[in-house]
Amino acid sequence: MPNHHSLIQGYEFGAFHLNLGKRSLQRDGVEIPLFAKVFDVLVVLLQNRERTVGKEELMQAVWPDSFVEESNLSQNIFVLRKTLGEDPPNHRFIVTVPRRGYRFVAAVRELTAPRSKEKNPPPPALPTETMAPQPIRSLAVLPFGVLGPVLAGSDDEYLGVGLADALITRLTTLRRIWVRPTGAVLRYARAEVEVLAAGRALGVDVLLNGYLQKAPHRLRLTVQLVEVASETTLWAEKFDVAWTDIFSLQDMISEQVTRALLVKLEEVERERLMRRATENLEAYQLYLKGRFLTARWTADSLGKGFECFRQALALDPGFAQAYAGLSEAYFHAATFYLSPEAALPAMKEAATLALALDDSLAEAHTMLAAARMNLDWDWSGALISFRQAIRLNPGLAVAHQWYGWFCMVQGRHAESIHELGQALLLDPLSLSVNFFLGSAYYFARRYQEAAAQFRTVVELDANYWPAHWVTGASFLDPAAAPEALASLQRAMQLTDSPLMAAGLGRLYAITGNRPAAEEHLAALLHLSTERFVSFYYFAMIYLELNDHDQAFACLDRACRDRDENIPLLGVDPRFDRLRDDSRFRALLKQIGLPQLHPDAGVKQ
């Protein structure tokens, strides 16, 4: 933790007041919550505001006894800038000095303690973590380590992730605490984990982790709840139960965790926390395995996940969460592996069946909303479902994420960016949420902010190919072609997706290399006879080749396919030159979207 100057009680800058003793940030008298490390980063920058603070120096000051990746610093800087209301590239408080570090540039006033009249007054006590304990606002549950040999593909492989996922699902019902979603902690599966480093990287106040061991007909589990900032164990317990008592085990852990967090539950929260989705142990095992497999997002694992969910439902047709899991698996498959016309109706059916059995499942409401948006173009129905999901579970990051996308395609850019900001607070290291936020800036025509956000995604994970692809495929200025080509080439090193050929075809068409554009177009057309390829991207290439008739023919085909890209037509700047065409207006009317002015995003 940074060593605060002993006579300084706080700082004022702009409309903000930072109180060191209380470790709080206020604006106009309203307290703004800050994660512990975000607060520490801000203090170091304020203390060294007359110079640039190098990245290594900053990391050493904030994480003095831990090895952390530079992406942790980047994410904390990102969250801090959002908290201070900064809009890139006009950073009013924190500027990035390329290849060096960061500097605080706003005017700052130090708030000092009044001097004592004594000749030799005792030195004021330094603020410490223990003097001003902070309320617990965020929690992560790490995948449980499995003791003993674990074979790939065995039941033991999924058990540690499955139990963590089940506890996350339960604890997310706590409205006073933000619980990191399963996707945020999967990186810690099947690996030796340094608990405090993981907690710092995830930006949480407390972290639940443990180890399990399977014995014949029994399950042994060691669990601890650790406060990250103080490095204090708040609660620890060992359990040795019959395998058939796994439901009671989850009940006990959930209840004791909430007790250790001093959370006073409302009756409805207690009911949801203790609710069991099924009493059939074999069906539950299959459900956990299905969740584990579909979280991997590969064609093979999704296929196996589908089968696990189907087997679980055959054993217990009233297992609502298994229907919700099946619906989410189809949604993932529609993104990369199955055609929308094959995946989206099945996704909607599974979500509808889940809600018929249990109308309180926020995840199922989110999937139904996504189906109404992408399959039915039922905007009012999707709005109702999204709002219901968020009302039932305000801490569900994926609900805010997809609601933000919903607002974006309707041209409600300010609301979209706000919702994606909420999702980011819940899951700050999520690549997809950070990527969605960059996309929202792009479709709002806030291009510099979009570029900065995509750079943040790459800083979090340089191998996340969608960020490289969209940077290359979405460029509008021919002068930027070299940078776009470099981004696409990097993406091609990371994936064999047909989207790469689409991006290159559009790039060559914009830069006047018609033979190369037509070559990539032909390759895509051939590939579309073997697997699903979005005709939305064909339309972009034909448009840059000035073949508007073929562009509209491809957009019509994408509409028939219920292509998930089609709702973007209302805001996509790549199609701005078609907006005065009656055929384009007819397409928007068919989808049920308003005809937006090309500069709608700028004026929002």
Question: Could you explain how this protein is built, in words?
Answer:
- The structure is a single chain.
- The C terminus is likely disordered.
- Among the domains are: 105 residues, Arc Repressor Mutant, subunit A, CATH 1.10.10; 139 residues, TolB, N-terminal domain (Rossmann fold), CATH 3.40.50.
- 53% of the residues lie in helices and 12% in strands.
- It has 26 helices and 14 strands.
- α11 packs parallel to α13.
- Strands 9, 10, 11, 12, 13 and 14 form a six-stranded mixed sheet that branches. A five-stranded antiparallel sheet has the order 4-3-2-1-8, with no helix packed on it.
- A hairpin with a 2-residue loop joins β3 and β4.
- It is an alpha+beta fold.
- It is globular, with a radius of gyration of 26 Å.
Kindly list the characteristics that best describe this protein:
604 residues; alpha+beta; Arc Repressor Mutant, subunit A; Rossmann fold; six-stranded mixed beta sheet; five-stranded antiparallel beta sheet; 26 helices; 12% strand; globular; disordered C terminus
Residues in β-strands, percent: 5-15%
| Alpha-beta classification | alpha+beta
Shape: globular
Helical amount = 40-55%
* CATH class term of the domain at 138-276: Alpha Beta
Integer average pLDDT: 80
Distance between the termini: 41 Å
For this structure, the quaternary state is single chain
Q: Residue ranges: pLDDT <50 for 5 or more in a row?
A: 115-133, 600-604
Task: Please give the CATH architecture of the domain at 138-276.
Answer: 3-Layer(aba) Sandwich
Q: How many helix segments?
A: 26
Under CATH, the topology of the domain at 138-276 is which? Rossmann fold
How can the largest sheet be summarized?
Answer: 6 strands, mixed
Radius of gyration over alpha carbons?
26 Å
CATH superfamily of the domain at 138-276: TolB, N-terminal domain
Number of strands: 14
